[in-house]
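Exercise: predict the fold of this chain.
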Amino acid sequence: MSDPKPTEHKPRTRRPSVAKTTQTRQAIVAAALDVFLERGFSDARMEDVAARAGVAKGTVYRYFTDKEALFEGVLREVIAVPLAHLTLLLPEPGESLRDAIWRAVLPIVRDMERSKRAPVFRLILAESSRFPALARMFRALVFDPVADMIQRLAQRGVETGELTTDALVKFPHLMIAPNMLAVLWNGVLDPEHPLDMEAMFAAHLDIVFGISEDTSSTKCHKPL
């Protein structure tokens, strides 16, 4: 009778740590952002993103199934996640609704260009006619949640008397439109004479809430 064969032990494969996985994903998203802004959505390639991130092309596909999914990841990380806190916005005790909006939105307005949110928005405007999925992503991840927040706050403003009409409840786009126009103006229409987004946002809030310059509780360049 022959001796039994020794049991073979396969070497265990160690899975990447959560920290390493997160780091790799962040590197891919950062590289994709740069590639999309440099080449546009249509001309960006997954292999270019991989090279920029310093990973294999297959690694990019492990995190994102295709270029649309990769762009969605960029949109989520660059715009949707930083804006997520707005959906929970409420005035603090003794704070007016107008000042609560100013407090929450002003840092975002100030950071539009440096954070690259403004260039991403301009890219979506430029290429959505050829790639409608980009506009759908923007609506679902960014515009609709912010519009819902505005409607909720506007309804509160109507109930407290801070707003004299329900126009913002019906058309939350009115609050978003000036900043979107400024992003388009500064990057496309007249970049040599850019609009002061912070001052424009303050002026728009004063118009919405019917506040004169002399009685405004928040001046255009009041530090946070």
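Check your answer against the key: Confidence is low (pLDDT under 50) at residues 220-224.
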